[in-house]
């Protein structure tokens, strides 16, 4: 821990004494917010409080002069208006009040994963624990970095991207399955993913048909077995600008081939997602059972009709910051409306119900869970993916078995999935333990909807769904184009709508690519960073990670470093002001 | 076709003031992947056609139909054809009043699988309780036909089932399908008796 406070890091200087004070746990004086006061008095008073609070620490005990009869946990706790970057986890803007909705811990399966693989898992999981804890020995060098992208490199990439775009256009929409695997076009895809059985049988390929790739996959399996024969494990091959990453998850082998700048670890994490996607359809128990009985079983038979789920998940991995950050974004909504929706959902419960999740597209509206049961963000992403890639829930009520691998790899839950209205984006997922309970859950939905329709919140909710997300200009920071902010303790992130320069698909993907690159650098397994300032060709970026939050900012090329640094405090202040709307601060249980 | 009118709930409510409750008919659609079960269900419930992605698990739809003097509330279980969901499908056809085993007339394999479905179904239903209809879908693609009308018909005859070829895409024969389920003289009486017993 000594290194944590003593290590002279550039961000300390950058962000001033507030950071230092906080890191050294010295009380730091701030003004109490008007908002917190409002919640205390239940009135719109505009008093200037002269209280001295310890910076950004929740006061869980409500002062006597509170005067409100509302239960303690229903009050927005006192929060500082000017959050400092050196926040402790759990007090950053967006942090939940009592308990988080998501699990951060590793699942049992990750803890018991054997040998080397287990270690790698830990590394992946540790992302959430905050990097400062694992400060490397050579931390004295300073763990902040500035990079300048070599000129030309991006241009070249750009060109490649455009080429690929053209190809995609040519191949038309949907799955580009009939691609010739010997063609140059096939080779040029940015990221390939292959799944095979331990017998070397193809199970999935992102591009091209599995049949055409059976010999390639045979070679992959040969590589894996060859290294394993020497009591070793193959992790990756780096050659010719390509990274080939192997993930061995018996009875499956997953291989990723990429020419992106993402690190090997990030690619492994993406492969893990694909693995969990397959598990979510079959459970690990069933998968093991199949391969124990017949080693050369063709798993494609069982996965038939679900390829589009994997395809879509891969697209999400390329585009959705949530999957990158292990977080979920919320629909911006007034907290009073959200509370009404949550309590309506809470009231419509059934015995077998474990989670009730209301989605607006890929944004979370609210989540109610059984006490002591937590949902892992990966499981939630798999549910998002299931809903987002299937049209069948639109026509009627869906009822499907689904395994939530981070919850339990061995068994199925049964999910009741339906849209609140036929043309609406609002989708309700009720996760139950009982496969016969369809009508009970159908009734839960009916009750929820009835209750909701009687309230004005339903109108507010529908308006919020229709309205675009917030533009970055609301924050009021010049030259700021876009940002992604994740509160680590709540596992939620917020991000403004994609601004004009990145509106088209390829530019959006390029921006995501940059974030992914920064993320890779920040979470480097042996040399993690706390901040990085990166000048790309068309923008300047700053990434900043503390134990409480993770922040990625994108500025126009006119933005300077000083501006970027000063923007952090300003942005945190803004998020604090808006956190009621942007985050779910008091998650509910049944 | 005047006998069968597919109407929205509100309309039927007006028409049958006397009838406060509709008779419940549980109907399940079975068959291999991609034969058009969801499309049939959609045509049945909304009289629409949309190309759809494979069904995940099972979809539950309801539709109120006026048949002569009775209001029938069809509860349709549209199951996924994929093999991985088969372990759970018996839940849906248990106690069904009507089971539609669907195959694609342009794919012989789906016809073979339909025969397996029929065998499976035989184990589950008590004769007389479930009306089984063999449905050859995609009759709008006669050029790609792999299963002849006669083959389908004789399979149905052998098993004592009802038979119909339809097109969910064009909507052809859809009303006939409903009629077949509902008003085949002797079956209709059986269904009506059945429904009478199930009156809620």
From TrEMBL, chain A:
Residues 479-579 form the FUZ/MON1/HPS1 third Longin domain. Residues 112-131, 140-149, 156-170 have a biased composition (Acidic residues). Residues 191-313 form the FUZ/MON1/HPS1 first Longin domain. Transmembrane segments: none annotated. GO terms for biological process: protein targeting to vacuole; vesicle-mediated transport. Residues 351-449 form the FUZ/MON1/HPS1 second Longin domain. Residues 68-97, 112-183 are annotated as: Disordered. It comes from the Eukaryota. GO terms for cellular component: Mon1-Ccz1 complex. InterPro entries: FUZ/MON1/HPS1_longin_1 (IPR043972), FUZ/MON1/HPS1_longin_2 (IPR043971), FUZ/MON1/HPS1_longin_3 (IPR043970), Mon1 (IPR004353). Belongs to the MON1/SAND family. Plays an important role in membrane trafficking through the secretory apparatus. This is Vacuolar fusion protein MON1 homolog. It comes from Albula goreensis.
From TrEMBL, chain B:
CDD domains: Rab5_related. It comes from the Eukaryota. It holds the Pfam family Ras. GO terms for molecular function: GTP binding; GTPase activity. Keywords: GTP-binding, Nucleotide-binding. SMART domains: RAB (SM00175), RAS (SM00173), RHO (SM00174). Belongs to the small GTPase superfamily. Rab family. This is Ras-related protein Rab-17. It comes from Albula goreensis.
